[in-house]
Design goal:
There is one protein chain. By secondary structure, the chain is an alpha+beta fold. It has 2 domains: about 100 residues; about 120 residues, Sandwich (Immunoglobulin-like). About 40% of the residues lie in helices and about 25% in strands. Strands 3-2-1-5-8 form a 5-stranded mixed β-sheet. The protein has a 5-stranded mixed β-sheet with strand order 4-10-9-6-7. Helix 1 packs antiparallel against helix 2 and helix 2 packs antiparallel against helix 3. The model has no long low-confidence stretch (mean pLDDT about 90).
Length: about 250
């Protein structure tokens, strides 16, 4: 068998280098998602990263095969190469493999979804989140505390204790809104007449941006808020301050 010519070897090397660069770029840092600050967010991050790796593996295989076919079967003369009308083993392979990939993605997605939306029992803190045109209200029913956003000035702030389970009870009073804290890696709609909930287990102290993620009218853009996760002792002090000031 004749050895490949130098130009062909160079192109093969270039293709391999590009593939390695793509793989390294994906593995060296984030995969485009924010760093999660809840246990549920970490589960979603694992699912996202697994899906990206699977997509990259399929992409590299397909690009590699396209490159190989372009080079291996490039036109060398006016003679028509041998034509194969079908190849049963390959046709079975390229049917079975995608079905197996979709089944694996479905399995992992379902497993993560069940873990994230499970009902893990009574939460440590319940916050009623009420969306209205065009602000937020956060109620702590056990404490009798209410934080209401104003249409001007600073966005309203929700304070949560670190390392505890929080259940959000999501209500809309007029039209559909959507409760979204990007660092939770999840969002859920507030729909009039529907009692949606979302549970998170906080894992990292800090202040996180929140937004309405459903276009809900002219001033939808005003529906920002912040979530501040603090150690439990600081959370108790905040509750006491809120009660004293109300
Ligand atoms: Cu909105």
């Amino acid at each position: 068998m004749a050895l490949p010519c130098p130009a062909f070897r160079r192109r093969r090397l270039g293709l391999a280098a590009a593939a390695v660069a793509v793989a390294l770029a994906a593995c060296s840092g984030g995969f485009g998602e924010p760093d999660p600050v809840t246990q549920e967010g970490s589960s979603i991050q694992s699912l996202w990263r697994g899906s990206v790796v699977a997509a990259l593996a399929v992409g590299l295989l397909v690009w590699g095969l396209i490159g190989w076919a372009l080079l291996r079967y490039r036109r060398r003369s006016d003679t028509v190469p041998s034509q194969n009308p079908y190849n049963i083993p390959i046709e079975i392979l390229y049917t079975v493999v995608p079905v197996a990939i979709v089944a694996a993605l479905f399995f992992f997605t379902l497993r993560t979804e069940r873990a994230v939306t499970r009902n893990p029992g009574p939460p440590d803190v319940t916050v009623e989140v009420i969306g209205f045109q065009w602000q937020w209200q956060f109620r702590y029913p056990a404490e009798g505390i209410t934080v209401t956003g104003e249409s001007v000035g600073e966005p309203p702030e929700m304070v949560l204790p670190l390392g505890q389970r929080v259940r959000f009870e999501l209500r809309a009073t007029d039209v559909a809104h959507s409760f979204w804290v990007p660092r939770f890696l999840a969002k859920k709609d507030l729909i009039p007449g529907l009692r949606n909930t979302m549970t998170v287990d906080t894992t990292e102290a800090g202040t996180y941006v929140g937004r309405c993620a459903e276009f809900c009218g002219l001033d939808h853009w005003r529906m920002n808020f912040s979530v501040r996760v603090v150690p439990p002792a600081q959370y108790e002090r905040w509750l006491a301050d809120q009660k004293a000031n109300s």
